[in-house]
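Field log, afternoon session.

UNIT: design team B
ACTIVITY: writing a sequence onto a fixed backbone
BACKBONE:
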């Protein structure tokens, strides 16, 4: 998984576009949520802290190294910077990250229930169930480490009592992942009002999870 085909400028532009789209599609409210992406030189671009997405410009984005040291930008990086940087440090195949507070996904997060991969495309694009990371305090290194280890073989994880964290190849890819998780959470929530949710056969799950692994690493 690499965004090396994108230039630094293209990566920044996609982060900004995705940030605005994240708000427009109701994955966040107000200034909540944040994004990160790996730049071609190995550093990262992050959204700034507490700034209206609709007013945000390219000049507001913050460049840091993977240890969180600010290299460029007039604003402070997101207070959740450790969350994004830890995932990129721990996994070379993660080049873009998103944290959002999507409503239905967060319903599962606050009840600490995984979102089951009962729809085939979830297994293909996410790798399996969206599990719940152990609770850690917002903005801490402990939370960052706990969440980062959960995306080793999945494109998304729930943060207990908090929200959703998604990873991918590019910011646009991560927007798709987060939207798919939210849509699936709503479907599962609604389906449970009707009756019992029936799982996909194990052998199908294993095959489709292989597709996800191949898309991420090039290996089955």
């Amino acid at each position: 998984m690499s965004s090396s085909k994108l230039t630094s400028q293209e990566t920044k532009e996609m982060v900004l576009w995705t940030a605005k789209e994240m708000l427009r599609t109701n994955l966040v409210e107000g200034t909540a949520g944040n994004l990160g992406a790996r730049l071609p030189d190995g550093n990262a671009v992050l959204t700034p802290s507490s700034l209206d997405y609709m007013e945000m410009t390219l000049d507001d984005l913050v460049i840091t190294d993977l240890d969180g040291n600010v290299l460029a930008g007039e604003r402070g990086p997101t207070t959740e910077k450790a969350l994004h940087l830890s995932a990129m440090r721990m996994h070379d195949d993660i080049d873009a990250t998103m944290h959002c507070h999507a409503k239905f996904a967060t319903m599962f997060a606050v009840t600490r229930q995984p979102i089951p991969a009962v729809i085939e495309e979830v297994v293909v694009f996410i790798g399996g169930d969206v599990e719940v990371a152990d609770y850690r305090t917002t903005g801490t290194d402990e939370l960052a480490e706990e969440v980062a280890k959960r995306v080793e073989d999945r494109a998304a994880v729930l943060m207990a009592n908090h929200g959703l964290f998604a990873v991918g190849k590019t910011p646009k890819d991560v927007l798709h992942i987060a939207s798919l998780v939210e849509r699936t959470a709503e479907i599962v929530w609604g389906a449970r009002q009707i009756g019992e949710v029936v799982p996909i056969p194990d052998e199908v799950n294993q095959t489709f999870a292989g597709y996800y692994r191949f898309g991420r690493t090039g290996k089955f």
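LOG NOTE: The longest helix spans residues 171-194.
NEXT ACTIVITY: expression trials, pending approval
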